[in-house]
Amino acid sequence: xxxxxxxxxxxxxxxxxxxxxxxxxxxxxxxxxxxxxxxxxxxxxxxxxxxxxxxxxxxxxxxxxxxxxxxxxxxxxxxxxxxxxxxxxxxxxxxxxxxxxxxxxxxxxxxxxxxxxxxxxxxxxxxxxxxxxxxxxxxxxxxxxxxxxxxxxxxxxxxxxxxxxxxxxxxxxxxxxxxxxxxxxxxxxxxxxxxxxxxxxxxxxxxxxxxxxxxxxxxxxxxxxx
Length: 226
Hints:
By secondary structure, the chain is α+β, with helices and mostly antiparallel strands. Helices cover 29% and strands 28% of the residues. It contains 6 helices and 9 strands, in the order αββββαβββαααββα. β8 and β9 (211-216) form a beta hairpin. The longest helix has 18 residues, at 136-153.
């Protein structure tokens, strides 16, 4: 008998796999996260990061996109996998490992609404969120750490900035997202060293005070889309 035929899957415990999707946006000048109110047990009536179980016939990316749409009505947004959460006991239903995704979007482009698996949906301050289900406080904290890195090294800002902008405008947007002041000279040096911007050839204003306008490079945005 071959080894394949002797293999008995029932001899092994099988943890479940879920996906969670952290959606950030700057709303009313503040960084906020899109949350859903859970409709079912466990944590019924508690706010949570959108997500759910991965089906047997879909990839993780497909599951993340599907769950996001099923719970919020949002689709067609860039998603990046950033961490896996697998602490035993994190879900009272069974042994669950969750793969987390994040994105940063322009809230004006979305019209989120509670769909099949949620009782409500809404934007909340990342600095003062409501009590969250499961270990979603930890997921949100980790997502914020990843967001900071992505802003400094990739074209993620293209998801919410206009086509052309000054470095000062870009820095001010990042300050709103990160919730802190950034040193102007240091920011300029680091963002230009990342090689994700290019001069557009235009200026804002006139005379000596006219500021150069920049845009994200096409190749940098292509890398973001993967």
